[in-house]
Amino acid sequence: MKNIYYILLTMLAMSFAFTACSEDNPFSTVTANDEPRILDPIFPDGKDGKLPVIAEMNRDAPLSISLTVTPANNVSISWLIDGHEVETGKTIDIYLKAGTYKFKVMVTTDASKSTYREGTVLVKPLVDDPSSTAIGVERIVIPGAKARFYGSNLDKVKSVIIDNKTITDIAHVGDGNYLEYTVPADLDEGEHRVIFVDNNSFEYGANTITVTQATLITAGVDRTNANREWTITGLNLDLVTSLTFAEQTITEFTKQTATEIVITCPDLQDGEYRLIGKTKSGENVQFYTAKGIVAEHTVIVSSETILWEGHHYVSWDLPDESPNKKFDLIGKEVFASIKAGATLSIHYSVNSQDVYHQLRTTSGHWADLPSTAVIEFSEGGVKEVQLTQAVLDKIQAEDGFLCIGHGYYVDMVTVQ
């Protein structure tokens, strides 16, 4: 009996030993030469090359995370927000202003072996806060130039701080939903966080702007029509000396300003053609695309007629007086000249900051067009609307055509 008793005690001791050495528990006997691991919390994985959302909270709640790591000892832990260290140790507990932040936590052993987790932190404003929403490419700006913020409660903003530079020369446009300002002329290129300040000197987060000196085309170069006037928009376009399209170099423009170039598209067959450009200093013209900034762009020449092109945000969250509550930029007189049987194509892209995306097509009275459907989506695409006589009649009888819904941009509308 005693032998059985000792055997049971031995087996119990071995089970404790195996439990202590489990990979799911930090243990102090693991050395600095072992690979570090973050056991808890389990951070989400990113999708489609995008970083995951690590945390989401209102701006009156802290970002609070505690790590369980192995080795439990012999490690240093660094918490970074926007690339700057804000805390060390196994716990972070800080308040952030409203905005989207780049998050990273690094665990490094005494032997310089390391692991990390990264993602984004979304901090939401309170209902009555001045807040800002990116509508298009207005957050790409030029030093010394006029720029604009869109958002809510902007009539409360007394000044704007960018890179420790205070801007008091601001203009409130609309019903507190627009704010115009002059970008500081000595602002360095790169990304800068923005702060709104109210009359009581309270500061609110307003995300970031990107400052550039580049000659940058931001819209108008995805599609065009042969032998038609072609309008291209962007920044510093008055510095462009030539555009080469389909191996044809164009040096004379119908119109050229700092934000716009107008040319006539060459006589080309439908297809895809390369577009590049040169500036007065011999540098390449840059193109702003969904995949980043590139030095050449592929343009589709199509026999479709472009009714509208740009980057117009649509959200039902915005107040009724906001122009981005809906898309209404094609007048009903345009549809009066279209014959029944044509196909209307609405090219759209998603706003990644919105978690839900829906598109509806209606008359100017917000009534669904006949035989059209509400669509929900998670990536950009094209919605086609058959312009039957019933659809065209409803557009004329009910004050025009609208795209409504939430969380997307209308990038182009064509008809064929």
Q: What characteristics describe this protein?
A:
single chain, mainly beta, Immunoglobulin-like, Coagulation Factor XIII, Chain A, domain 1, 4 domains, 6-stranded mixed beta sheet, 6-stranded antiparallel beta sheet, globular, disordered N terminus
Summarize the structure.
The chain is mainly β.
How would you describe this structure to a colleague?
With 416 residues, this protein is mainly β. It has 4 domains: 37-124, Immunoglobulins (Immunoglobulin-like), CATH 2.60.40.10; 138-208, Immunoglobulin-like (Sandwich), CATH 2.60.40; 216-301, Coagulation Factor XIII, Chain A, domain 1, CATH 2.70.50.70; 305-415, Hypothetical Protein Tm1070, Chain: A. Helices cover 8% and strands 49% of the residues. The chain contains 3 helices and 35 strands. It has helices at residues 2-20, 332-336, 389-397, and strands at 37-40, 53-58, 63-66, 68-70, 75-81, 84-88, 91-94, 99-109, 114-124, 131-133, 140-141, 146-152, 157-162, 165-167, 170-173, 178-182, 190-198, 203-211, 216-219, 223-224, 229-235, 240-245, 248-250, 255-256, 260-264, 271-279, 286-289, 292-294, 297-301, 305-315, 342-350, 358-363, 375-376, 381-387, 401-415. Strands 24-25-21-19-27-28 form a 6-stranded mixed sheet, with no helix packed on it. The longest helix has 19 residues, at 2-20.
